[in-house]
Specification:
Layout lengths: L3 E7 L6 H9 L6 E8 L5 H11 L5 E6 L4 H11 L4 E4 L5 E2 L3 H11 L5 E10 L2 E3 L28 E3 H7 L10 H10 L5 E12 L5 H4 L3 H15 L4 H24 L3 H14 L5
Helix pairs in contact: 6-8, 8-9, 8-10, 9-10
Length: 282
């Protein structure tokens, strides 16, 4: 059984999937297998992956097509179908530099108490390299508070132990977006993060089918996660205050948007969430 299982969820990403897959196969660290989970796609991605798998003699590549259930379900399935002690995620429109896994494994060996290791990223938007917003600056150590405003840990940068995944309960399949944000909150509320401060992952964005460009009111899902973390974790006073501050800030903006656009049902739902979490937020 390989030490690492690489999980690549995809949905109609025929244009990008081989770039992602080849960046994994080009890794200098070789003790891994690959799970490609096609989440209901119909663009011929499967034919490409199967052809590439047949050409590969050293690394085992498994492909599974499923009904469309979302990226959280695809990641969960890929992890559960795999056997590696550690899991590396890669979105099908991103890619790795060749030494990505090797440097994470080296970090792991020098820091045996760390169960999550992420890397720096290079951001490409519509073919142009851009600087990520300051909120996305990467850190190691106790990063829970850094994860509150946005999803600071990019899925494609992450390597984590299977035990960590099982303890956290996997990705919440109810979330159409922000499932990674929700997962990292649950993880970093209990664990430190290791960080390889090199841009070993290339994150592409700006294409039309990217979830973050098509989803409406992503902060709705973030607020749900923030409210839940208050319920399921016994946070320190400092952390609890930090969570409440983000809930208040995001909540005001979200409620104003729902009121402006006449979305009364969602407005009342969010208002109820905020009042239960902290009456002062409304």
């Amino acid at each position: 059984m390989p030490f690492i299982s690489v999980v690549i969820p995809t949905f109609n990403r025929k244009k990008y999937i081989i770039r992602a897959l080849d960046s994994v196969l080009a890794q200098t660290y070789r003790d891994f297998d690959i799970q490609v989970i096609d989440d209901g796609g119909n663009d011929g991605t499967g034919n490409l992956v199967r052809t590439r798998a047949a050409q590969e003699e050293e690394i085992r590549i498994q492909y599974k097509h499923t009904p469309n259930q979302g990226v959280a379900a695809a990641r969960n399935l890929g992890i559960r179908r795999s056997g590696g002690d550690w899991i590396a995620l890669l979105d099908s429109d991103d890619e790795w530099l060749p030494e990505k896994l090797e440097k994470q494994v080296d970090f792991m060996r020098h820091h045996p108490g760390i169960s999550l290791i992420h890397t720096g990223e290079t951001w490409i938007r519509k073919g142009i390299r851009v600087n990520p917003p300051r909120a996305y600056r990467k850190y190691g150590g106790e990063v829970f508070e850094n994860c509150l405003p946005v999803c600071m840990i990019g899925p494609s940068t992450a390597l984590f132990s299977r035990h960590l995944f099982e303890e956290a309960g996997g990705f919440d399949e109810e979330y159409p977006v922000c499932e990674d944000y929700d997962f990292w909150l649950r993880v970093t509320s209990r664990h430190e993060a290791g960080f390889v401060d090199e841009p070993l992952t290339v994150k592409y964005g700006g294409h039309e089918d990217q979830l973050s460009t098509t989803a409406v009111a992503m902060d709705y899902w973030r607020i749900r996660s923030l409210c839940r973390i208050l319920q399921i974790r016994n946070l320190s006073p400092v952390r609890r205050t930090a969570v409440l501050e983000v809930i208040r800030r995001k909540g005001r903006i979200l409620l104003n948007g729902y009121r402006k656009h006449g979305r009364e049902e969602r407005y009342l739902e969010v208002l109820s969430l905020l009042r239960r979490a902290d009456p002062a937020s409304t």
